[in-house]
């Protein structure tokens, strides 16, 4: 059975603005994690992040809209523009034929911080009217829908790091109900003082001061992760609709999705990987595939020893009986974890791996932990990639798994 087709990808990330810039950075193994710029981090205990460079929001966002919105919405509007351009997609006459279903993890951080500082320093009259909408989780979905005239069923998914995959799960439901095109994915912009403080209290961020020491998924010296900003937005289309409009290319098919929740604790991870493994199995069953059919797994790669161990346990439960170990990579290690934007960016990366037959390595994986049945990819390598599983976890117990497959033209 044919799934939804990915016909457009837009990337705005620390690894680059645009699909090819991002991919080239990954393949060459160029770390995008650097000392935080824009504010003094001395009092936070965290000094590194993945920040977007060479991004001019004025190229994508009208001046009157910029003053109403936060940086995270600017990156979403830019990524959506790039995705539509990549797909050659123009809004159809039927405004209800296109939906927007994005993910969000933290909302409009920078805008809100400025307004709150004004409130405390100058009083209520210093707070602008746009504060009520610029911070809101649905701001990027709403502003994109308004700007481009997309009136199909739309919404926002808030499941932290799993959100990028969950937005695709929702898009499949929307498409089954008759909407032929859906913009999915998401971006984040949480490299701001208050947002950094909120994330630092989780205890999951690395306090290392050298990029090569800071984010090391599946390494014996793993000590936490590094935050980042940006993400990706993708255009998904129903196959018949894509053919009818003459889509210029197809990146791949979304053929399976599964999501579970640990239902254990609002912060602490579950003691075992039962629900995480179940999400993977659900996605494979949904795709009609077996573990032996998978060529590559893009892991969540939390970068904390206990969370990495749980992810490897889930992978071993699902793929441990294969004749050959399943290749596993964690490309977020190059850019930092972008919350909802990170899982969306990993979907873009997986589709690029399918296109070019290249598996990007995991950054800073110098001394891999023991992982029987799992082939942890340290350096980029050439490999035929036809089917990929993309994994993501959200803080609080969310587990999601997406199956992507190379698109092959089929007779009508």
TrEMBL record:
Q: Which BP terms in the Gene Ontology apply to this protein?
A: fatty acid biosynthetic process
Q: Which GO terms describe its molecular function?
A: 3-oxoacyl-[acyl-carrier-protein] synthase activity
Q: Which UniProt keywords apply?
A: Acyltransferase, Transferase
The entry's protein name is Polyketide beta-ketoacyl synthase 2
Q: Would the keyword Transmembrane helix be found if you checked this record's keyword annotation? A: no
- Say if the entry is tagged with keyword Endoplasmic reticulum: no
Q: Which family does it belong to?
A: Belongs to the thiolase-like superfamily. Beta-ketoacyl-ACP synthases family.
Q: Which residues form the Ketosynthase family 3 (KS3) domain?
A: 1-406
């Amino acid at each position: 059975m044919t799934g939804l087709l990915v016909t457009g990808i837009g990337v705005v990330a620390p690894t680059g603005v645009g699909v090819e810039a991002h991919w080239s950075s990954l393949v060459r193994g160029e770390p995008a994690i650097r000392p935080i710029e824009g504010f003094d981090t001395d009092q936070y205990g965290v000094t590194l992040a993945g920040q977007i460079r060479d991004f001019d929001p004025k190229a994508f966002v009208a001046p009157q809209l910029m003053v109403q919105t936060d940086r995270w919405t600017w990156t979403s509007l830019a990524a959506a523009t790039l995705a539509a351009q990549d797909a050659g997609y123009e809004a159809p006459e039927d405004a209800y034929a296109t939906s927007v279903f994005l993910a969000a993890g933290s909302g409009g951080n920078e805008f809100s911080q400025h307004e709150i500082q004004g409130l405390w320093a100058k009083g209520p009259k210093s707070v602008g009217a746009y504060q009520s909408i610029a911070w809101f989780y649905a701001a990027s979905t709403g502003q994109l829908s308004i700007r481009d005239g997309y009136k199909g069923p739309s919404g926002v998914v808030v499941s932290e790091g799993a959100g990028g995959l969950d937005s695709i799960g929702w898009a499949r439901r929307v498409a089954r109900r008759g909407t032929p095109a859906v913009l999915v994915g998401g971006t984040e912009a949480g490299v701001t003082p208050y947002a950094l403080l909120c994330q630092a209290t989780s205890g999951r961020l690395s306090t290392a001061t050298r990029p090569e020491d800071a984010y090391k998924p599946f390494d014996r010296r793993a000590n936490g992760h590094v935050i980042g900003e940006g993400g990706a937005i993708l255009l998904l289309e129903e196959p018949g609709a894509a053919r009818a409009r003459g889509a210029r290319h197809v990146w791949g098919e979304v053929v399976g999705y599964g999501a579970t929740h640990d239902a254990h604790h609002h912060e602490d991870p579950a003691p075992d990987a039962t629900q995480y493994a179940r999400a993977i199995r659900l996605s494979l069953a949904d795709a009609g595939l077996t573990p032996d059919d998978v060529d590559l797994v893009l892991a969540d790669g939390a970068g904390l020893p206990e969370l990495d161990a749980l992810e490897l346990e889930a992978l071993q439960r699902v793929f441990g009986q294969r004749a050959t170990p399943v290749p596993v990579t964690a490309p977020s290690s190059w850019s930092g974890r972008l919350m909802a934007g990170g899982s969306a960016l990993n979907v873009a990366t997986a589709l690029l791996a399918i296109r070019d037959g290249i598996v990007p390595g995991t950054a800073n994986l110098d001394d891999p932990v023991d992982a029987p049945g799992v082939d942890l990819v340290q350096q980029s390598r050439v490999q035929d990639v036809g089917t990929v599983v993309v994994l993501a976890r959200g803080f609080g117990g969310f587990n999601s798994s997406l199956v992507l497959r190379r698109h092959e033209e089929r007779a009508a």
